[in-house]
Write a structure and sequence with these properties.
6-stranded parallel sheet; 22 helices; Serine Threonine Protein Phosphatase 5, Tetratricopeptide repeat; DNA Cyclobutane Dipyrimidine Photolyase, subunit A, domain 3; DNA-binding
DNA sequence: TGAAATGTTGGGGCG
DNA sequence: ACGCCCCAACATTTC
């Protein structure tokens, strides 16, 4: 009788380039792939609403792919440490394998599981697969983790021999039947009342197949990435982020697909640099586990944030009166995703013009983004707020009007998502409150009725943000 | 992966 | 022809 290995799946929902699965399948052993839905009460950073939608479809497809290979995906709920030990005992598995994570709670689980299994005489091992590099290997001359992106990425590229290369499709002998699997239907990951994800499937095909197709399609058009990625009306970004978060596509596959004689364009290089930002954020979270809940620059813990739930709600619903921001927030709400240029502007307006704590924005993005990722989301918000590693200086304030005019000059993006101001001419569409009365009348737009006045005038918000920074300095 | 304020330069209109 | 001014264009500094 052959040995059985459990493979604990989390953010690695794919069957290609999967070191843990490949190792488990070695030597003709039988593999039982498991996904444990964490139901511990009070556990932080469980998947938000949009992520649950993606998770459902990823697992559904992965389960079907495993069935095609003669196996079954085992679904259970509870505390993964407890549940996995139980499954290992039930099935007589000789070991549990997994892909190592960078999230602090997930790493805690790995440790706890390892010691619990050890006591039961069961083996365990964590594998690469989530990143390009092991965070413990990338260090500055002084041996400390990098805190600035550019030297970090230079160092990574200088050690490209250590970069993980993708492996092929896993051919594993899966256990034909598994004990007491729960079902996705039972889990109720999909929204019901209301079904706000109705529009999601028009924009996304979650899962490994959709991810690999998206990657191949992007690799072909990646030469336009460098120029085009800043313009939200264009389709030039990769839109790979949710696939990368759930591991439908591995970062090693994404890097490899955009490398090569014919593909080392400026676009490919700058796309890989963005993969570098993902890597940087993950390494930061690995080395600084408090990144999600504490300012990386401790002095910002004293920043005079305003409590303003009313304005927060206005921002969340895309009713700020800044068209580029509202367009982004509505795109997020309807599709589970926002163009990165617009994310920066929308986030900047929340923390600077509105002086609302970056954690409020982090929480909203966590719940509404299909690509919500603890490392990227935390590092991104801290970057915008000016309190992060290699952060934009606090005084670097985006002007939502100028950003709109610069990156959506023809207002194609804004008009798509904010139709109530679509009739305004280009000159005023990014700042409706500056339009003369006759222009407003001609466009059939009543400010304050059909579309709101801005929460705060851009220049007033900007000055208030700078004052707050000055205030912070006096508190040090 | 800012924007505004301030400084510098140089062409052209004009007396 | 010349100096003066205006101002656009660009560069630098400051927040």
């Amino acid at each position: 009788m052959s040995q059985t290995i459990l493979v604990w799946l989390r953010h690695d929902l794919r069957l290609s380039d999967h070191p843990a699965l490949t190792a488990a399948a070695g030597g003709g052993r039988t593999v039982i792939p498991c996904f444990i839905r964490n139901t511990q009460s009070g556990r932080k950073w469980l998947p938000g609403g949009a992520s649950r939608w993606w998770l459902h479809h990823s697992l559904d497809q992965l389960g079907a792919d495993i069935r095609k290979a003669g196996g079954q995906l085992l679904l259970r709920s509870g505390d993964p440490v407890v549940v996995l030990t139980e499954i290992a005992m039930e099935t007589g598995a000789s070991a549990v394998y997994w892909t190592r994570a960078v999230e602090p709670l997930d790493r805690q689980d790995e440790k706890a599981l390892q010691s619990r299994l050890e006591k039961a005489g069961i083996g365990s091992e964590g594998f690469d697969g989530h990143l390009l590099f092991d965070p413990r290997d990338i260090r500055s001359q002084s041996g400390t983790p990098f805190k600035v992106f550019t030297p970090f990425w230079k160092n990574c590229l200088a050690h490209s021999k250590k970069m993980r290369a993708p492996t092929g499709k896993v051919s594993a002998r899966f256990a034909a039947s598994v004990p007491d699997s729960e079902t996705l239907t039972q889990w109720g990951l999909l929204p019901t009342k209301p079904d706000w994800a109705g529009g999601f499937s028009k924009h996304w095909q979650p899962g490994e197949r959709g991810g690999q197709a998206a990657l191949m399609a992007f690799a072909k058009r990646s030469s336009g990435y460098d120029e085009g990625r800043n313009f939200p009306a264009q389709d030039d970004t990769s839109r790979l982020s949710p696939y990368l978060h759930f591991g439908n596509v591995s970062v090693a596959q994404a890097f490899a697909a955009t490398t090569g004689k014919t593909r080392s364009s400026a676009g490919a290089v700058s796309f890989q640099r963005e993969l570098g930002w993902r890597e940087f954020s993950a390494h930061l979270l690995f080395h600084f586990p408090r990144l999600p809940d504490k300012a990386f620059r401790p002095e910002f813990e004293k920043f005079p944030w305003r409590k303003d739930s009313k304005t927060l709600r206005i921002w969340q619903r895309g009713q700020t009166g800044f068209p580029i921001v509202d367009a982004g927030m509505r795109q997020l709400w309807h599709t589970g995703w926002m163009h990165n240029r617009v994310r920066m502007v929308a986030a900047s307006v929340l923390v600077k013009h509105f002086l609302i704590h970056w954690k409020e924005g982090q929480d909203w993005f966590w719940d509404t983004l299909v690509d919500a990722d603890l490392a990227n989301n935390s590092a991104g918000w801290q970057w915008v707020a000016g309190c992060g590693a290699d952060a934009a200086p606090y005084f670097r304030v985006f002007n939502p009007v100028l950003q709109g005019q610069k990156f959506d000059a023809k207002a194609v993006y804004v008009r798509r998502w904010v139709p109530e101001i679509a009739a305004l001419p280009d000159k005023y569409v990014h700042a409706p409150w500056t339009a003369p009365d006759d222009i407003l009348a001609k466009a059939g737009l009543r400010l304050g009725v059909d579309y709101p006045h801005p929460v705060v005038a851009p220049e007033v918000g900007r000055q208030r943000a700078l004052d707050a920074l000055a205030e912070l300095k006096t508190r040090l």
